[in-house]
Automatic annotation (TrEMBL):
GO terms for biological process: ATP synthesis coupled electron transport. The keyword Electron transport applies. Core subunit of the mitochondrial membrane respiratory chain NADH dehydrogenase (Complex I) which catalyzes electron transfer from NADH through the respiratory chain, using ubiquinone as an electron acceptor. Part of the enzyme membrane arm which is embedded in the lipid bilayer and involved in proton translocation. It is a multi-pass membrane protein. Belongs to the complex I subunit 4L family. GO terms for cellular component: mitochondrial inner membrane; NADH dehydrogenase complex. It comes from Acrochordus granulatus (Rasp-skinned water snake). This is NADH-ubiquinone oxidoreductase chain 4L. The chain crosses the membrane at residues 28-47, 59-81. Pfam families: Oxidored_q2. One of its GO terms (molecular function) is NADH dehydrogenase (ubiquinone) activity. It is an enzyme of class 7 (translocase).
Amino acid sequence: MELINMTLHTLFLIMMLNLSLQHKHLMLTLMCIEAMMLILLMMLIIFTTTTQTISQTPMPFILLTISVCGASIGLTLVVAITRTHGNDFLKNLNLL
């Protein structure tokens, strides 16, 4: 169990590093965020199964629901930006 926790923490840190280094495409940035959410979901599922508390049982489902909503909004933004600008390069967007 400790190996799984260490692996998930390492994967989360790698995704955070990848997110900070990803400066080209919006889609790759959103994929890094989605991978981080899936890693958090796995950590939360492991935590709730090991503690066996009834009050924390719906938390993975709530996190998964919020993650799906965020992914759909992100995909909508990618489609809208691609239609207006022709690509999803982050350097072409004026974020100010």
